[in-house]
Amino acid sequence: MAIFAIVFGAILFGVGLPFAIIALVYRNAINTTRETYWISDGGILDLMDQQPDKLLSASQLSMLGDMSKAQARARLTKLSMFGLVKRFSSGVTPYYGLKQPLPDQQEIIRVHSSLGFEDLMRLFEETDFRITLTDLVYRTDLSAEEARKEIRRFKRDKIIQAVRDPRGKTSYILGPDYRDQSVPVEEVQPDPREAEDRLELLDLDVIEYAMQHEGKISPTQLKDWKGIEHQEAVDLLEQLREKRFFDVIENDAGYPEYLLK
């Protein structure tokens, strides 16, 4: 029995440690953002776009953004975790590049407490009525985490809805009650440049939630927790299952649950 407990504990430790490390890195990156916010997340994306090869290292950001190399590395790590940039390996020096091209720069929208409906509609009108997290971060002075909270708020109020292409790339369109007949509804086509599968921050949230609830989460729990549609919760959990983070089991009531591997 004691041997079983030791083996079981070692398995749990081995499964939970990587996610605990990810969560620790994420919290450190958020704190660093607050310490170095004289350059916004959108400003870092702009610096990256200004480089001849569209790549930026922590050393470059340290010099251009007037911060320590450790702070620059934390800022770039956070943007990578949010899916705004991707990491390129080059020996011992990693470089970071934009995950998708930046929109044409317009006037930066200054957000005082929360993004207003009129400002949101302005963003939609200037981006052909489909926006991404990158658009929101680049076109406002919001940090990546603040922009994500605003997206959650507008989704909860059913003003916007998420659409995903076959590769999991997420963008946002107006909800059914706010769509105008003049806005064309077109199928979301996959971006051929999105060849890599990555862990989005929302995925990390779901995994952390499951870790705090005996390693399990159901579509209903995710729906109630995130304030999203039931089918969206099912789709997200299925994507995590396909990425081999979860197995599907049946609970005592006969309904499906997702169990961390």
Protein topology:
Elements: H1 2-35, H2 41-50, E1 55-57, H3 58-64, H4 69-81, E2 85-88, E3 95-98, H5 117-126, H6 133-139, H7 144-156, E4 160-164, E5 170-174, H8 201-211, E6 216-217, H9 219-226, H10 230-242, E7 246-250, E8 256-260
Antiparallel strand pairs: 1-3, 2-3, 4-5, 6-8, 7-8
Summarize the structure.
The chain is of the alpha+beta class. It has ten helices and eight strands.
Please give a structural write-up.
- By secondary structure, the protein is α+β, with helices and mostly antiparallel strands.
- 48% of the residues lie in helices and 13% in strands.
- It has a three-stranded antiparallel sheet. A three-stranded antiparallel sheet has the order 6-8-7.
- A hairpin with a 5-residue loop joins strand 7 and strand 8.
- About 5% of the residues have low confidence.
Total E-strand runs: 8
The main sheet orders its strands as 1-3-2
Distance between the termini: 22 Å
Order of helices and strands: HHEHHEEHHHEEHEHHEE
What portion of residues belong to β-strands?
5-15%
Q: What portion of residues is helical?
A: 40-55%
Shape: globular
Count of DSSP-assigned helices: 10
Structural class: alpha+beta
Q: What is the rounded Rg?
A: 20 Å
- Low-pLDDT stretches: 187-199
Main β-sheet, in a few words? 3 strands, antiparallel
